[in-house]
Specification:
Blueprint: E1 2-5, H1 6-22, H2 26-38, H3 42-61, E2 71-79, E3 82-85, H4 90-102, E4 114-115, E5 122-123, E6 131-137, E7 142-149, H5 151-154, E8 158-162, H6 168-175, E9 187-194, H7 197-208, H8 214-220, H9 225-239, E10 253-261, E11 268-275, E12 281-286, E13 314-317, H10 323-327, E14 334-343, H11 346-357, E15 372-374, H12 399-409, E16 413-416, H13 422-431, E17 434-437, H14 443-447, E18 450-457, E19 466-480, H15 487-499
Parallel strand pairs: 1-3, 2-6, 9-10, 13-14, 14-15, 15-16, 16-17
Antiparallel strand pairs: 2-7, 4-5, 7-12, 8-11, 9-11, 14-19, 17-19, 18-19
Helix pairs in contact: 1-4, 2-3, 11-12, 12-13
Length: about 500
């Protein structure tokens, strides 16, 4: 008879969440390095270099790979012969482990979970509650798969109820381009097929937590229909040319993982959930002998990559940059930013725009005239850090505020992750502003460029407060220039045509 003790269970959850916050799975690092070595697009190759360097830094410094340390999702298989020594339910123990992990003073993780999601959206403060799935199985052990899923990739989850005769491949190839780059490719596509609507979504999430093995599958060849489907989707999704961070290139996905389940004769439910470049998951088993132990990888397992910004990179002083200088920046160009910028995410933008709409002044210390805003919600600093990991958040969420911000504040430009939508691009062109892209999933590396940080407004919003950053050589890519030309619209088409597997439909 196996006895699972409360403290062992809680400590195992906490340790696993700390572990995955700074250690990438080794299979992911190997797959990303292989993609980096073969990439031909300099912009995409540069983005992957930043991801690999960031990963190594996080493994060394035990700090989060991404500032978005995720919503905790746990799949638990409980052996029916297990006995429990606990005063808490399984879900309560999971949440205690989450609290312990996210408040660890040596590696504080960002609390991103909001209660009352349809109403006041108040941060719970400790990243609880987790999403917990339990299953009773034969046996005398407890098996746990745990993930910390970032909001940017989770926001791109898709579901469809196809007709039985419809093509899954056609739907995926039509759907992936609509996801943009906010899920931080290259990553993994998890696909669930069958069951019911909710079952398909759960299967897709579980698929994201499987190991990368597509190259082994290519080498040995498929042995069943699902493996044939994996290979076809892997080849054709990469042929879309979306590339790392949506900048165009050879690799958009590192693997396609598929799980299926029997379904009703009238249905073909299909779910697609991407896992981002900060993929975080771990598997462990509790057998009653104490807390689980996850073996740290060796630093020698990471590739040694030096990041070279190149002779063509342009250094920019944010405190003196003029409109004439900004007008000369071209999509795809690498900039190194130094000087002062302000930050702001969804909640801060909502407050700012409400103030502007009412004709009220902005908070003291918040002056966007001639300045840049960085879409970020940083992790709290530890030890001697100026700020914790501070990578960009998805820029399209701020599209609805862009016209007002540019028209009424004198804002010169924005920095975020992935593409901008049509309304934001129109506003950028109208006001001759600019949008710059930082690499999503390289948060610790970005934080190394931040020399000073202070909160200047909306401190009650926690990680969504407005900060003032002083940066030095912060790397960004020009994504939308003052003429409204977007690299996220042009580059994938160029690389799709170069790869030549999928016909390119030119815009009329």
């Amino acid at each position: 008879m196996t006895l699972i003790r409360q403290d062992d269970f809680i400590q195992s959850i906490a340790d696993a969440l700390q572990y995955i916050s700074y250690y990438h799975p080794l299979d992911f690092i190997q797959a990303l390095d292989a993609a980096y070595q073969k990439e031909q697009n300099p912009a995409a190759k540069d983005a992957m270099a930043q991801l690999l360097i960031n990963s190594r830094l996080c493994a060394q410094g035990h700090r989060p790979i991404c500032q978005d340390t995720g919503i905790v999702t746990v799949f638990i298989k409980i052996g029916m012969a297990v006995q429990w020594a606990t005063t808490l339910s399984v879900t309560e123990m999971v949440n205690e482990g989450v609290r312990l992990a996210y408040s660890n003073p040596d590696n504080v993780l960002r609390a991103s979970i909001l209660a009352d999601p349809a109403g006041k959206r108040i941060n719970t403060g400790d990243n609880t509650p987790a999403v917990v799935h339990t299953e009773l199985v034969l046996g005398d052990k407890v098996e746990i798969n745990i993930a910390a899923k970032g909001g940017g990739s989770e926001a791109k989850a898709k579901f469809v109820m196809l007709n039985p005769s419809d093509s899954i491949v056609d739907w995926v190839l039509k759907t992936v381009p609509t996801m943009g780059a906010g899920w931080c490719p290259p990553g993994i596509l998890g696909i669930g097929i069958g069951g019911t609507a909710e079952k398909a979504m759960i299967l897709a999430k579980q698929a994201c937590m499987e190991s990368i093995d597509i190259q082994d599958l290519i080498a040995r060849g498929p042995s069943n229909a699902l493996e044939e489907l994996r290979l076809e989707l892997y080849t054709k999704v990469n042929a879309l040319g979306i590339g790392a961070q949506g900048l165009g290139g050879l690799t958009t996905v590192l693997d396609v993982k598929i799980l299926d389940y029997p379904t009703h004769a009238a249905n073909k439910p299909v779910a697609l959930i991407p896992n981002c470049a900060a993929t975080r998951h771990a598997h462990f088993v509790l057998d009653g002998s104490g807390p689980a132990e996850l073996k740290p990888p060796r630093l020698e397992d990471w590739p040694t990559i030096t990041w070279d910004v190149g002779a063509t990179s342009r250094r920019v002083n944010l405190d003196t940059v003029t409109q004439a200088e900004v007008a000369n920046w071209k999509p795809g160009e690498t900039l190194l930013l130094s000087g002062t910028l302000l930050t702001g995410r969804d909640a801060a933008h909502k407050r700012l725009v409400d103030l502007l709409d009412r004709g009220e002044p902005l908070p003291a210390g918040v002056d966007f005239n001639g300045k840049f805003i960085y879409y970020v919600g940083p992790v709290d600093p530890v030890r001697d850090e100026v700020v914790g990991p501070a990578g960009p958040t998805t820029a399209t969420r701020m599209d609805k505020f862009t016209e007002t911000m540019l028209a009424k504040t004198g804002l010169r430009g924005m920095i975020g992750k992935a593409e901008r939508g049509p309304s934001a691009i129109a506003a950028i062109k109208k006001h001759q502003a600019v949008y710059l892209m930082a690499v999503g999933g390289a948060a610790y590396l970005v934080s190394k460029a931040i020399r000073k940080s202070r909160i200047v407004a909306f401190a009650d919003l926690g990680m969504e407060a407005i900060h003032e950053f002083v940066v030095e050589d912060m790397p960004v890519t020009v994504a939308v220039d003052t003429l409204g030309s977007s690299i996220h619209q042009t580059a994938p088409l160029i690389w799709q045509k170069k790869i030549g597997l999928i016909p390119v439909v030119e815009a009329v």
